[in-house]
Amino acid sequence: MSLPAASAGAATGVSALLDVQNISLRFGGLKALSDVSFHVRPGELFSIIGPNGAGKTSMLNCISGRYTPSDGRVVFDGRDVTKLKPNRRAEIGIGRTFQNLALFSHMSVLDNIMVGRHHLLKNNFFTGALYWIGGAQKEELEHRRKVEEVIDFLDIQHVRKATAGTLSYGLRKRVELARAVALEPKLILLDEPMAGMNLEEKEDMARYIVDLNEEWGMTIIMIEHDMGVVMDISHRVMVLDFGRKLVEGEPAAVLADPHVRKAYLGEEDLEIEEAAPAAVSA
């Protein structure tokens, strides 16, 4: 798969947009995350990888507010958001997609994407009357203009009026991304955005993600199992295994780390792989 290389323009020496501090998460006797810390700088495309059950989605849930960690803090844009509800985190700029599609299947593509802008509506009690007299129509047009920009960017104009539940899986994943982007987040969390896609769909999605990062300036945290995509487009990568952080760094260094290879291949498979060249030369 030939993809755009990750930009070298990820900020260095810049204060973190997201600072995850010593997060642990327990469900009864099960420890899903154990003392995990990392940070994400503004403008980075940061990927979290690891075997199934490593705690990747649990970490995204702690960042987005679906889970409250047992220990530790989540600091976003200089603010401790550990106790904030998911809707409040969306309001201050954290958007996300889900591993399992969470679209309103009976609604149109356009209406699904419009849902992503609900937190931007000016509808509080005190300003409501004046707003509806003077500003409702203007605001509605502005929201629709922003949504149309997202639709054009993700090349889904041809299905904008279609019912979401009738679309192919790949298109539904793109619509879910569009809804998250419509929120205009400072940070977007992508939970396996390419899962279940064919090669062509993966290439398209990877390019959209890179463009969101480079052209739209969005900071991205991505969970993805396709190692080729992760290594091609990420600025930095963190590896989780059984809820613990194994390693964090630039893609090439992470891929070469023996602990990462063991976590993915297993000790027995690793030994077989290393022995293979000798067997061939014999």
UniProtKB/TrEMBL annotation:
It comes from the Bacteria. One of its GO terms (molecular function) is ATP hydrolysis activity. Pfam families: ABC_tran (PF00005), BCA_ABC_TP_C (PF12399). GO terms for cellular component: plasma membrane. Residues 18-267 form the ABC transporter domain. The keyword Nucleotide-binding applies. InterPro entries: AAA+_ATPase (IPR003593), ABC_AA/LPS_Transport (IPR051120), ABC_transporter-like_ATP-bd (IPR003439), BCA_ABC_TP_C (IPR032823), P-loop_NTPase (IPR027417). The keyword DNA-binding does not apply. Keywords: ATP-binding, Nucleotide-binding, Transport. PANTHER family: ABC TRANSPORTER ATP-BINDING PROTEIN (PTHR45772:SF1), CONSERVED COMPONENT OF ABC TRANSPORTER FOR NATURAL AMINO ACIDS-RELATED (PTHR45772). This is ABC transporter ATP-binding protein.
